[in-house]
């Protein structure tokens, strides 16, 4: 609805205009009235008005003088003049002030309606044009920002080769003054649920938090690493001396990360490089910040600076061949308590030593590969024991603590032991398991697929099917269906160019948001990110 102000010194005419017509049917709403020019100006000072209907012949300040003052004050409103036959010459003068709509008194409803219709059509087109221009500007800005982010992302991930001099020139063009010292900050944001990425919105929000928590922050360059889903900041230390000291730098960024949590973000962590100069900002600075970010889990901190981590990064940690042999024997012999104790000892040592993330991840890989060997030798598919993660790298990304990683690996060992015991006592019910898997492969797309459907097809009871399948495969039938659906979804997203909703429906999910949460838990990346990365390539 366009908002209307009626200005006429004759009360009866003013009330006739206000109450004599069906304004809403024309797309208008009369929100105020005035009996003279000065009162109208007071209303325009405090209210947003779209259209003013003004009588030309008014005492003290006539309609022409009122419009001149409106234009002088730059009020963005349209004006319709009311004029009598005797003072029609005023209308010509009004055109010089940009008023092209006038209505003769006494008012004729058909003429009045036609004039208002023309004006509404004009304002609709102007608003559409403004929206179009704004969208074009935002689209252009977004494209330019995306190309800028892509350039840096290519450099970070060594996707392009570039000569030193050319690199310096391009960095200078992006506002990176190479003779100054910089800190590189990599910030990882995890959302509560998957949503379409708006790079500009994410970067604007980050700048808002930064300037709110660190007033006076200057010469900061914000980027988004599309491949790693990280926000990257280049901060000029020469213009932000408070960031010179590592401890002070960490203290400044902690409230930024904490402040961003609790909105739509579930977890925000940051890694900070040491001071870097010249083209090192692309290689050394980024790698240092990324390493610091990875180690936030190990030290249970939201923010870490690379230089303060060096003593821990230099530490070495390996599990011995004897420890691996003992762990293997306990799993193969079904010793749950001893398996738990030996795993707990390894992870307790990691925590006490405070080793770097690289050593931690190498240790995790050794244990995982050991368990994978045992599963393979026992004809077991370890993927069914991984608690919804598609692979080890996904688990390393998704599990946020040392204790959490211990629990995950112990859970795998526990399921392997249980499955080996099941097969030993009851034999391998391969035929039943095979038929269940085949039925699921043929029907995973069906949103209504249930355990009862499968048991009816195989002529067994649901409890028997559920228990037998879980003991043999290491996961429930429902979990296996989810795994198959997610694997198929990944294939579709990577090859067919479908959007998230269509993909969810095609693999058997009726709720795209639930599908997105399951997908991110399983693969460690959201479905929209998979689409974005494929488009990026």
UniProtKB/TrEMBL annotation:
Could you give a GO molecular-function term held by this entry? DNA-binding transcription factor activity
Q: Where in the cell is it found?
A: Cytoplasm
Q: Which Gene3D superfamilies match?
A: 3.40.50.2300, Homeodomain-like (1.10.10.60)
Q: What is any one GO biological process for this UniProt entry?
A: phosphorelay signal transduction system
One GO cellular component term noted in the UniProt record for this chain: cytoplasm
According to the entry, every stretch annotated as the Response regulatory domain falls at 3-120
Quote the Pfam families the UniProt record gives: GGDEF_2, HTH_18, Response_reg
Residues annotated as carrying 4-aspartylphosphate in the record are 55
The residue ranges of the HTH araC/xylS-type domain are 434-533
Its primary localisation, in coarse terms, equals cytoplasm
InterPro entries, per database record: CdaR_GGDEF, CheY-like_superfamily, Homeodomain-like_sf, HptR, HTH_AraC, HTH_AraC-typ_CS, Sig_transdc_resp-reg_receiver
Keyword entries, A-Z = Cytoplasm, DNA-binding, Phosphoprotein, Transcription, Transcription regulation, Two-component regulatory system
Under what name is this protein listed?
Stage 0 sporulation protein A homolog
Which species is the source of this protein?
A: Ruminiclostridium cellobioparum subsp. termitidis CT1112
